[in-house]
């Protein structure tokens, strides 16, 4: 996700996105074990997106 997209999100939307990304990460890990994952970088990108959304939520709570 881009910075501009993140700034537009509300707290509830960010939480929903985190849940979706966690499910995706779970599926990517299974695909990796089974040898079906086409790009291993998807795992790292997903982890980074989750971290960015968590940071966004913390900033909105503390603001």
CATH topology: Helix Hairpins
Number of domains: 1
The profile of the biggest β sheet is:
none
Provide the β-strand percentage band.
under 5%
Radius of gyration: 13 Å
SS content category: mainly alpha
**Estimated helix fraction:** over 70%
Distance between the termini: 22 Å
What count of helical segments does DSSP give?
Answer: 3
> Which architecture per CATH?
Orthogonal Bundle
What attributes characterize this protein structure?
single chain; 63 residues; mainly alpha; Helix Hairpins; 0% strand
Outline of this structure?
The protein has 63 residues and is mostly helical. The protein has helices at 3-8, 11-34, 41-62.
Could you characterize what this model shows?
The protein is mainly α and 63 residues long. It has helices at 3-8, 11-34, 41-62. Helix 2 runs antiparallel to helix 3 (41-62). The chain is elongated and about 45 Å long. 6% of the residues are buried.
How would you summarize the topology of this molecule?
Blueprint: H1 3-8, H2 11-34, H3 41-62
Helix pairs in contact: 2-3
């Amino acid at each position: 996700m881009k910075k501009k997209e993140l700034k537009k999100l509300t707290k509830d939307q960010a939480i929903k996105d985190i849940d979706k990304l966690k499910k995706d990460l779970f599926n990517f890990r299974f695909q990796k074990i089974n040898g079906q994952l086409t790009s291993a970088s998807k795992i790292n990108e997903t982890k980074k997106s989750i971290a960015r959304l968590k940071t966004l939520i913390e900033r909105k709570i503390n603001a």
